[in-house]
Design goal:
Layout (H helix, E strand, L loop, with lengths): L2 E4 H6 L1 H9 L4 E5 L2 E6 L10 H11 L21 H9 L1
Length: about 90
């Protein structure tokens, strides 16, 4: 059974209502004893595909094409096996 809050309570306890909704509960809001609104979680859809999100951002002008890296990247470790030595030293 969903929790029922008056409009006054809902305004004062908005954070509590959002926590309940995030945990999958429905919350009803009443005005003068009559239920007037329902707050419920959104239906979960599949996560967005990153390529589509990036394309949309580029189309809207938020992102530009990736910049070319000048030259080649050089390794930071001077001797091979630096990562394994570092991890061993942390144990």
């Amino acid at each position: 059974m969903p929790a029922v809050y008056s409009t006054y309570e809902a305004k004062a306890k908005f954070g509590e209502i959002i926590r309940k909704v995030r945990h999958g509960q429905r919350v009803l809001i009443s005005y003068r004893g009559q239920k007037v609104a329902e707050v419920r979680p959104l239906a979960m859809t599949s996560p967005p595909i990153i390529e589509e999100v990036l394309k949309d951002l580029e189309d809207r002008g938020v992102l530009g094409p990736p910049a070319k890296v000048p030259g080649s990247l050089k390794p930071l470790a001077r001797r091979p096996g630096a990562l394994s030595r570092f991890l061993e030293s942390r144990e």
